[in-house]
Amino acid sequence: xxxxASLEKRVLETIRTYRMLVPGERAVVAVSGGADSTALLLCxxxxxxxxxxxLTVAHLNHCLRGKEGEEDEAFVRRMSADLGLPYEAESxxxxxxxxxxxxxxxxxxxxxxxxxxxxxxxKSGAQKIAVGHTRNDQAETALFRFLRGSGIEGLSAIHxxxxxxxxxxxxxxxxxxxxxxxxxxxxxxxxxxxxxxLRYSRNxxxxxxxxxxxxxxxxxxxxxxxxxALLMRETWSLVKSQAKRAFNGMAHPVEDGIxxxxxxxxxxxxxxxxxxxxxALRHCFGSLKGISLxxxxxxxxxxxxxxxGGRILLPHNAVAMREFDNLLLLRNAPGATPGFRYELExxxxxxxxxxxxxxxxxxxxxxxxxxxxxxxxxxxxxxxxLEKPLVIRSRISGDRYGGAKCRKVKKMLIxxxxxxxxxxxxxxxxxxxxxxxxxxxxxxxxxxxxxTSGSSLMITFxxxxx
Length: 466
Hints:
41% helix, 6-stranded mixed sheet, 16 helices
């Protein structure tokens, strides 16, 4: 084997440092035809004997530059043939896709590109996807995110390995070094005319801001920013691992979301509080798309200052809610259960759909009144005091438990820490105007069985098992 070029040695070192490829693996190499991706393909091809890997070349035409894009595709196809490598290509009308989705063109182009690469990887049996990001891309990304506003994760910029699949073997190589390599190899490459369009923020950073900062502030700006991104990446790795551990120890699943103790969040360092909430939001909703720092800070404010029942609306109809000492993150904002009303004959039974359970009423001998009966699901009442039929309904304003001079139902539910989201679905057993029993509470004192007539009304409530 011939002696390796300087760039090839640097790429090999990066691959080994980050364990990007192991012998026997196949990598799909994303090649646009530009200098960076062309150099990436040439380097990986030269390293095949040392890496013991296989390559498949993939090219996506975004159909944004007409004939120029077609010539790019032809260039990559010829190079793949010259290297004896399998080649896959597709064309996608990205502008049409972005307009239909009403989304940013650059974002849609990126999503379509990675979707294409994943499909080719699956088709070719590849374990890795290699892309041509460089140290200059790293510096420009870090600077762009700093100007836009970003936390530690964002400032860590481009990672060498993403999701154990996407690899960036040239991330520690400068663009000047890449151009020198291509010149030494006497290999041409394609120039993307859109890279000169200063309407795009990244182009202005690359062509105007970076040269200005290098000239007036730091001639070593690119390696400095790349090094700062590395430090941020190391810090982020530590914070992320601690936040994940804390999240796993405090989060519990509930229907349609998760719940966490507010005190457990408050006991964390402020930096970890934010990251734990980001873990929770990502776990609950699948991604952080649409979630900003403002959302996270609003949730923290909800934990610190809000009373039970406070809520923060999140993207896609999700919601963060405080319920007493708990924080709930729900994928769908809960609505109040519509009011309901059922009649319960004595003896008789009825199913209350809103409460997902059955009520059963029967007269029993007082001797059957057993102390071990659970008042949460069973109540013994004085038959002579009841109006027939009994009514089972939802709570209404002004309800009192046992009569006009008795305790307000609303206060009972608050003191019992019944979540606001559950209160509208709680079934109230009512005689006349008075609430006489709510499953989970002792029967209202004025209506409890006195054993004076030798018999009692027993009402039981059983949740539907379905």
